[in-house]
Design brief:
The chain is mainly α and 277 residues long. It contains eleven helices and no strands.
């Protein structure tokens, strides 16, 4: 750790705290603490004796408290290093070759018409795809062209799942939620807004090239929004199981299954609409 003498010497040479800290390899706030014995909190309640300490600047020290954050993966040199490390790691290369974009089959193989079971299985498929998307490195993490292409394929698969899932919900699930739950209108409105946000993000992601920073940023946004939406819908499903009988849930599931099978292979990119079940 630098000494007080080292910090003060650099200040006397005309450097400010940021420059002195960079020379010494410490944060600016730490350099200020070493020189003065006071935290760089930007406070204005210093005593006269404290204000006269060596190294005390005449202006506020607030700018030394929280230095600007830096994302190291945004640098080309870091990306190149990641690529070299990945290429040199035999186990990583072997794992990448074995990994594909197939989320696997559902563990539940029986046919069910229970509405929350049907929709939960869709959630499971999307969650599995999001895990694949996260584990396969993209451009920012030094991913290979094949890996970035694979991430694009995963986004296509998410589109396919949601293309049938969300329109069927809009046609049958949310009208039922409005009808049978006391706070159904608020729940449905919140869910539909989440779906609109997710659909817009997914559309932008599908239009972006997989080997770009934009794709990586949008993939993070989509993952966050879909996970939040799935968690929200799970709470709604629990309320529906309490409010509807097994037969009612099965009847609703049959309607939803028919609507889902009739949907196109890509999601609607315009506004949402609801239909009474």
């Amino acid at each position: 750790m630098p000494t007080q003498e080292q910090v003060l010497r650099l200040l006397e040479a005309g450097l400010d705290y940021r420059e002195a800290a960079a020379r010494l390899g410490v944060p600016a706030g730490q350099a200020f603490l070493i020189a003065t014995g006071l935290p760089a909190d930007g406070g204005d309640t210093l005593t006269g004796e404290e204000q006269r300490r060596p190294g005390m600047p005449s202006s506020s020290t607030q700018h030394l408290v929280n230095p600007a954050a830096e994302n190291p993966t945004g640098k080309d040199s870091v990306r190149q290093w990641l690529k070299q490390r990945a290429a040199a790691d035999t186990q990583m290369r072997s794992a990448a070759q074995r990994r594909d974009a197939d989320p696997g089959s559902s563990q539940d193989t029986d046919e069910t018409d229970e509405v929350t079971d049907l929709l939960t299985r869709d959630h499971d498929r999307v969650t599995a795809l999001l895990k694949q998307l996260k584990t396969i490195p993209g451009r920012k993490k030094g991913g290979s062209p094949a890996q970035m292409s694979r991430r694009g394929s995963i986004v296509d698969m998410i589109e396919v799942v949601l293309a049938a899932h969300e329109p069927a919900e809009q046609q049958h699930l949310w009208p039922a939620v409005r009808r049978v739950l006391g706070d159904g209108d608020a729940l449905a409105d919140q869910a539909l807004e989440q779906e609109r946000e997710g659909t817009r993000t997914l559309a932008a992601l599908a239009a972006a090239a997989p080997d770009t920073d934009e794709f990586d940023d949008l993939a993070e946004q989509l993952s966050s929004r879909l996970r939040r939406h799935v968690a929200f819908e799970d709470t709604v499903f629990a309320a529906l199981r309490d409010a509807l009988s097994a037969d009612e849930r099965s009847a609703l599931g049959k309607k939803l299954r028919r609507a889902r099978s009739a949907e196109p292979t890509r999601p609607h990119l315009h506004g949402t609409a609801e239909t009474d079940p």
